[in-house]
Specification:
alpha/beta, D-Maltodextrin-Binding Protein, domain 2, 2 domains, five-stranded mixed β-sheet, 11 helices, 10 strands, elongated, Molybdate ABC transporter substrate-binding protein, metal ion binding
Length: about 260
Amino acid sequence: MNLPALLAHALWRGVRISRFWLALAGLSAVGALPVSAAESLTLAAGAGYKRPVSELAAAFERRSGIRIEPFFGHMGQVLAQARQSDRVAVVFGDQAFLEGAGQPAFARYLPAGRGRLVLAWPTGRTLAKPEELVAPQFARIALPDERQAVYGKAASQFLARSGLAKKLEGRLLMVANVPQVSAYLVGGEVDAGFINLTDALGVRERIGGFVEIDPALHDEIRIVGGVVSGHENLPGVQALAEFLASPEAQAILIRHGL
């Protein structure tokens, strides 16, 4: 090999060696990152709690450095995801609903607040009390599917216990979940609808108003984070439990009507 070729070969080897040491240095730097930076926690929640859970997740990430991977849907979808994937660590929802689900099993429940049912109406309508629903102008009244959403169940209980169920036969429109009822209210596609206070606060600028339903007329709604069995010893779970009890988290929950 002549001198120019030898020089070129040496230079090429030098570049390869430099790249090798740079790559090795990069790997060392990654290995030196805090453990929390590489951690993540998958949370699932009913679609009606997307706003508070998203805000809680963002605040928790800032405080702990643990990344949150959220999943939202109606509770049937949420529980199916938790059963099928071993990544879901915490499911937010009504404690009674989670306890009755059978699978997945839950090791513990992290308190998050009390759910509140409201009756809302679109812009252009007005209601002073739920009994006024019997008026003919309230021809389409939406509520979430009681088989999939705790607020659908609570709405059905209220209608039965208040004596309104029979008076409103033929006017009730059952839809998938709370956000869908809210979308119909915002779009003026229904004359009234049952949703939770959390969602009502989120769309209050785009609807006519809402009134809270007497909680004595439906079962108590205890919103919790159910820790899926097998995940209770994850560091992120304990950190989340401590965060939910903090003043910062409590302020977020109260602001969202919990």
